[in-house]
Amino acid sequence: MRSYAYDRLRWFRFLHSRWTAWERAERPDVREFMELLREAPVRQRSNRRPDAPASGSANPVTGKATLGTTYAARTINQRLLSFQPFG
Residue 60: its pLDDT value, please? Predict the structure, then answer.
């Protein structure tokens, strides 16, 4: 429920910054919101140590890739699916 609330808050803040009422939002608004999410840096990952491995490099112990500095497509999809502006 908390995640849903934060996703809604992010959407409403985006609309407010564009002076668009939420009931007047249209597909171009959603498209621009998606573009913003694709380019937005993840604040928690911007504070990496200087000696931290580069984004996308493999962890020598687990073999998993290091997280990138922007949101993954899965995260963006989850944020878009948490509300149905045209449903």
Answer: 79
3 neighbors 82 (Cβ within 8 angstroms): yes
pTM for the model: 0.66
CA separation for the pair 42, 75 (Å, rounded)? 11
Boundaries of domain holding 16: 1-45+68-87
Residue 56 in any domain: the answer is no
Q: Please state the domain count of the chain.
A: 1
85 within 8 A of 23, measured Cβ to Cβ: no
In a domain, 9, yes or no: yes
As a whole number of angstroms, the distance between CA 83 and CA 6 comes to 11
